[in-house]
Fold:
Amino acid sequence: MEFLRSLLEWVVALLSPFVAPDWGALIKLIPLGVLLIVVGFYGWVFWRFRRAGPRRIGMPIRTPQVPAGIHLPGPSLAPFLISAASAALFFSVALGGTALAVSALLFILALVAWGREAVREYDALGAGSALELRAEDAPRATAISGPPEGVHLPPPSLLPLLVSAGAAVMLYGVAVGLEFALLGTLMTALALVGWLVDAGREYRATADADVSGHLVNPAPRKTPKIAIALFSVAFLFFAGSQAGVIGGSDASPSPSDGPVACAEGGTATVTICAQLVAFETESITVPAGIPFTIHFVNKDAGIPHNVAIHEESGTGPEVFQGEIFNGVDERTYGVPALTAGTTYVYVCTVHPNMVGTIVLQ
Structure:
């Protein structure tokens, strides 16, 4: 009987990580999993290369010549730079600070460089006839007239990039503030409408070609510089307002509203402060078996935070959730008694990356 009980306990212990996994630990393993996938892909490519058949060694290196009438884009490092910048951006998310800012800048520069190459290729197609254009002639192209007659090629467009940027701002606003969410929604909606209009123009052009037998590509639209500038100014204004840089005197409460520094909250048992979407207080000590109070100071202007208590980890059972409120402000929470011998952590419900430990005594 004792053997069966031990066997059952062993089976339960074996299956528990799959039935109730530690999601926080699994999320931390995502970069390692992506790295293994990338390494495996390149290993597979190398293996295929080694099995590609007979290879000629010692042959003279010749510059390949593109046949007349064939357009072949020249070699480019842009895809490699995009991949490297994406990897740097992905892994720097865990580091934050300067590393994240630098990797984001490199990613944007790589995208701009690739976009410029694509526009040059498109313009080069219209600089010569379909029978005379060679890849080496593209840099000498001067006239920009679109693709050769009878060839349909969608013009370069910033709309996919703008849709992605608007969606990013919208999702950012879901966690940070309503104004960013509304701004991102408006950006995404306008970019999607513009994309739909362009798709309609291309469809009508091909439909007319079926009737007339002559394909006329729609002229590329001008870059919406005014709209991009207005949205950029609005984003910077909202960001500056939340950070207290713009209208800082109005964002911070007056001395009569109470303290905003991370100071003891009167008769509260412990004090927790949040700033820059992180808890300044990484660990607190509270009494076991009796109720206590938490004085919580939210120092992030316009960003919602709270304090919630969970068992084991940030994804474990929740035993208490405090009021969510925007900074700069503070609240005092009454927390029920916590059981000795159980592990507890406190997190922000809005930003699960904000985690602190609780010590019972």
